[in-house]
Amino acid sequence: MVEQTEYQKTRVREEFAVRRKRQLIATIPILVILIGYVWLGERTEQTAYPFIMIGVVVVTLIFSFRNWRCPACDGYLGRGINPKFCSKCGAQLRG
C-alpha cells in the first residue's frame, strides 16, 4: 500500500461517494423496467419488452464494471455497495 497524504485520502473518499451515488442511480432504470414488465405483462402482450430489459441490463453492467472501481488503484470493488476499504489496495473509501 502506497502512503497517501490527507488530501489524497480525502479525494479518494469524495470520489468514492460520487461513484457510489452513480452506481445507485444506475439501478433505477432496471427497477423501473422490471416493475413495468411485471405490471404491463399481466395486461398486454409485450414482445419488445424482454429485449429492452436485456439491453438496459447489458448497458448497466458495462457501466458498472467501469464505474465501480477504487479511486486510488482502479481495482474492481466487488459486488458490495458500501465497502469501507478497497480489498485490493486498502484505501479507506468511507469515513
Describe this structure in words.
The chain has 95 residues and is mostly helical. It has one domain (1-95). The protein has two helices and no strands. Helix 1 (6-41) runs antiparallel to helix 2. The longest helix has 36 residues, at 6-41. The chain is elongated. The mean pLDDT is 87.
Helix-strand blueprint:
Blueprint: H1 6-41, H2 49-67
**How large is the share of residues in beta strands?**
under 5%
- What's the total count of β strands? 0
> Would you tell me the overall average pLDDT?
87
Distance between the termini: 18 Å
Shape descriptor: elongated
**Rg, nearest Å:** 18 Å
Strand-pairing-aware structural class: mainly alpha
Enumerate how many helices there are, as a single number: 2
Return the domain count: 1
**Major β-sheet annotation:** none
Unreliable spans are none
In sequence order, what are the helices and strands, one letter per element?
Answer: HH
Helix percent reads: 55-70%
In short:
With 95 residues, the protein is mainly alpha-helical. Helix content is 58%, strand content 0%. It has one domain (1-95).
Key phrases:
95 residues, mainly alpha, 2 helices, elongated
